[in-house]
Write a structure and sequence with these properties.
With 84 residues, this protein is mainly alpha-helical. The protein is built from four helices and no strands.
């Protein structure tokens, strides 16, 4: 019974992660584009984050650091690296 619940929760997590992969991919692609634009201006990545507002920083922290999105972030990163 406990093993069945574990597999159901794991399956739900994988389905949720697969749902979030396109969103995380678009976020990652936009972030890389913004980093490239800042690099062409001579700014570092730290300066880019220093110039962001508090709301945008909170969004970045949640999108990149939330353990719920770990699998979706990892899959989006793999897809991004394969395509670019």
């Amino acid at each position: 019974m406990l093993l069945t619940i574990f597999w159901m929760i794991l399956g739900l997590y994988v389905l949720l992660s697969l749902f979030f992969v396109p969103l995380q991919y678009r976020f990652l692609a936009a972030l890389k584009k913004e980093e490239a634009e800042n690099k062409s201006r001579g700014n570092t990545q730290g300066e880019m984050y220093d110039s962001m507002g508090a709301g945008e920083l909170a969004l970045h922290e949640n999108m990149q650091g939330n353990p719920i999105f770990f699998l979706a972030n990892f899959l989006a990163l793999i897809i991004y690296r394969v395509r670019h």
